[in-house]
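seq:
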Amino acid sequence: MIKLAARNLARRRTRTSLTTLGVAIAIAFTVALLSISEGFMLSFQSTLRKQGMDIAIVPKEAEAFPYPDVAASVGSFPEQLVSQIKELDNVKEACPIFTIILYGMSSAKPGAIPLVNGVLPDFFREMAPYLRLKEGRLLEASDQYVLVAGSGVAKAAHLKVGSTLNIRGKDFSVVGILRPTGGWDDGTIYAPLKPLQGLYGREGQITYAAVKVKDVAQAEKTAQEISAHWPDVSAQTMETMVRKLTDLLGMARAVHLSVASVALLIGILFILSTMLMSVSERVKEIGTLRAIGAPRTLIFRLIVTESLMTSLTAGVIGCAGGYLLSKGMNYVLSQVAGVTYFAPAVSPRIFGFGMAIALFIGVLSGLYPAWRISKANIVEALRYE
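struct:
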């Protein structure tokens, strides 16, 4: 059956090739979208879970966002709250952070828009112990206009230890370059807190605070206590932020799947039209097969097999194409922006989903043509011209 189906498909190579290519493009598009959203989610979750903080405190108006650095574009609150929060029973450490978004960092890479976190030296030890130096040193208490750059920012702006980066008219000297983490830290710059606040006229203001607790099991209770005691801020545990992120990306994935369903419909129409044309051209041939004793079930299985072979071949090509497409999109983004915050994640599960789509397309688009031709009258089929 497979040999006969392959021979029939090979007789119309151009049509078979174009149909396979059309379905492969639809599947490649689906696989690429899913791998990008998967990589984005994994990068976010990895960054959040590696951090030493158990609770993030953001301005009340930023509580809907799943990542605390986003609070930079929303609002701020007084730094003095951090010293008050430190007095709570379950709080072990609290670090103030002032974040700004640095636009136009590099003329060569105009899309590179890193975050600049103003922090105290203790931040690296307490909240980001996973950050490792590639060269240079971390921030010290006596530092003023210096910075430590993530690997992606350093590459985009051609930074190295001893070079400078202009922030709001002030040259900051690079004292350290971090090793790649594969997360959002690669696109982050760390500078001393007080000088950065002064440059932006926001003395005594921070965009969020990172809190480490003594008893992680009581983190949710502590977060609720902070939010209740200081109504202008919102305290969220890491689990809450990961859950919000998962919900947010779940909606994005739903949009991706909606778009992919259009590609799926196109794939079904491609093969359906091809199979209908194929059986209409082979009515006399199939009538001859029936006349020499071929049962209806054999004809039915032959047409479905041809449809499945076309779609499954397209599935293999589409999965490989989707992988290359996601890598290509990531490369283009890195060339435009200079830094990417995620790597596409093409997992066996996504490949399996792509092949399942191919199987579904093959079965669905082969059933009607197979049923139609298998029911044809033998005498009428032999007379067909």
